[in-house]
Design goal:
Elements lengths: L5 E4 L2 E8 L5 E7 L2 E7 L10 E2 L3 E6 L1 E2 L2 E2 L7 H13 L2 E9 L3 H11 L15 E4 L23 H10 L4 E6 L6 H11 L2 E4 L6 H10 L3 E2 L17 H6 L4 E4 L8 H11 L4 E3 L12 E5 L2 E5 L3 E4 L4 E5 L4 H11 L3 H13 L18
Parallel strand pairs: 2-5, 6-9, 9-10, 10-11, 11-12, 12-13, 13-14, 14-15
Antiparallel strand pairs: 1-2, 2-3, 3-4, 7-8, 16-17, 17-18, 18-19
């Protein structure tokens, strides 16, 4: 619950504001970290003009405020810093996202991230991890900023090793379905409880249908991770939009997708099958400029992070909260639907939402 106007009373915390679903004034009672009562207040009450809503859930975020979740020297203090900064943006739950790297670096990343699962301060905000790659398309454009030299075919033994190191906490993985061995890999992920999202791929309608039958249920940042020039009829966008078995994640920051793309995707999938993600990189929140990382040059602008050598976007520069206003402006959807796409939908993209628990009910000051 992202909240404002917190007050302490005997035995409980009370938060007053406007309910995000209808704008009516309410008082929320919180006892022992659990919402125990939501009580309507008389209209016209002298309340802060702020909305009360569930905390945002970001299932694709690579880092924040200079902290890279793939950093080989990632420390608990760095994870605290990033998590505290995200709390201030209303993101109370997130999946640290690790992208394509060699085997050793990915294994080490998960060993470091696994430590957060037992951290008394931030563990409730980190229910698991997202592995984006390395089982993606190696083709320029479709691979985006993922390093070509580390992209490889789906390998269940390798993935199982990562999962063991991560204490079985890899909840989501992005896969290119057209690559050799990808379909049986998707089936094994589904059987083991891992959500599979299709991304950075050039799958045909037939391949995409096979992937859905095998268990894929999401499309990763649809409209991105795609070549700059595609066939107007035969491309991976249309079959993912038309397939009712897929929900989509989108980066609605106003730069990764145009207004018309967001409007069209929303009209096809609706609020019930659309999930907002930030895809923020570690550069997000830092001063604008040019940065070097792992021997590559990135450009941080006020809107996005660019990858000049490939002429593609490397990721986003803003937190998930900024996408709320953008999608409302682009689609004219309600605040309730926007929050649904950034909170309820990512929570229920799993068969069970028992992993989504409230850690903090008052935004840190």
């Amino acid at each position: 619950m992202a909240v404002f106007g917190c007050t302490e009373k005997t035995g409980a915390t009370y938060v007053e504001g406007l309910l995000y679903l209808d704008g009516n004034p309410v008082s929320i009672e919180i006892a022992d970290g659990i919402i125990s009562q939501v009580k309507p207040l008389a209209k016209g009450s002298d309340l802060p003009e702020v909305y009360l809503a569930p905390g945002l859930i970001d299932i694709q975020i690579n880092g924040y405020m200079g902290v890279d979740f793939s950093d080989q020297n990632l420390s608990p203090d760095m994870m605290h810093e990033a998590t505290f900064a995200l709390w201030k943006e209303g993101v109370t739950t997130y999946l640290p996202t690790v992208i394509t790297r060699d085997h050793e670096r990915l294994a080490h990343s998960f060993s470091l991230l696994a430590e957060t699962l037992h951290d008394e301060i931030i563990s409730m905000s980190i229910p698991g991890f997202h592995l984006e790659g390395p089982y993606l398309s190696p083709v320029k454009g479709y691979r985006g900023a993922h390093p070509e030299q580390h992209i490889r075919l789906a390998d269940w033994d390798e993935f199982s090793e990562f999962q063991s190191i991560a204490h079985e906490a890899i909840k989501l993985t992005t896969v290119a379905p057209e690559m050799e061995g990808a379909i049986p890999f998707i089936s094994k992920c589904k059987e083991s409880g891992v959500v599979v999202s299709l991304g950075h791929h050039n799958g045909t309608p037939e391949i995409i249908e096979q992937a859905v039958i095998a268990g894929a249920s999401l499309s990763t940042h649809l409209g991105n991770g795609c070549a700059n020039e595609i066939n107007r009829h035969h491309n991976p966008l249309w079959p993912q939009l038309s397939n009712d078995g897929l929900s989509i994640t989108i980066i609605a920051d106003g730069s990764h997708l145009t207004r018309d793309e967001v409007r069209t995707f929303y009209k096809v999938k609706g609020a019930e099958k659309t999930i907002l993600v930030s895809d923020a990189l570690s550069f997000a929140g830092l001063p604008l400029g040019v940065y070097e990382k792992d021997g590559e040059i990135y450009e941080l602008t006020s809107e996005v992070v660019k990858f000049p050598s490939e002429n593609v976007l490397a990721g986003a520069a803003t937190p998930l909260s900024k996408c709320i206003g953008k999608i409302m402006n682009f689609t004219q959807c309600s605040l309730g639907d926007a929050i649904r796409m950034a909170s309820t939908n990512p929570a229920t993209s799993w068969d069970s939402i028992t992993w989504v628990r409230l850690k903090r009910v008052c935004a840190p000051t």
